[in-house]
Amino acid sequence: MVNVVSVKVLDVRGLQCPEPLLRIVKVVEELNTGEVVDVITDVPECVNLIKETVEGFELGLVEVLNRGEYFILRILVR
Questions:
Q1: Res 42: pLDDT
Q2: What per-residue confidence (pLDDT) applies to 7?
Q3: In the chain, N or C: fewer CB atoms in 10 Å?
Q4: How large is the angle between the packed helices 19-30 and 44-56, nearest 10 degrees?
Q5: How far is CA 73 from the centre of its chain?
Q6: Strand 8-11 relative to strand 60-66: parallel, antiparallel, unpaired?
Q7: How many other C-beta atoms are found inside a 10 Å radius of the C-beta of residue 75?
């Protein structure tokens, strides 16, 4: 994915799935195609679920950035 300026940041650290996923869907629905939301989570189990769900439902493309103590899921809205 190319470097982009984030339009929105959604910090869901400490929340267990599916709560982060529900919040992501709400945010993505408010954005336009081509906009970006960075989702921050510290729950490794949520990373693959979020990525697979967002891409599976064709809501956007997801790039996962591992920052050690947390992950950033950069979602480019379709």
A1: 98
A2: 84
A3: N
A4: 40
A5: 4
A6: unpaired
A7: 28
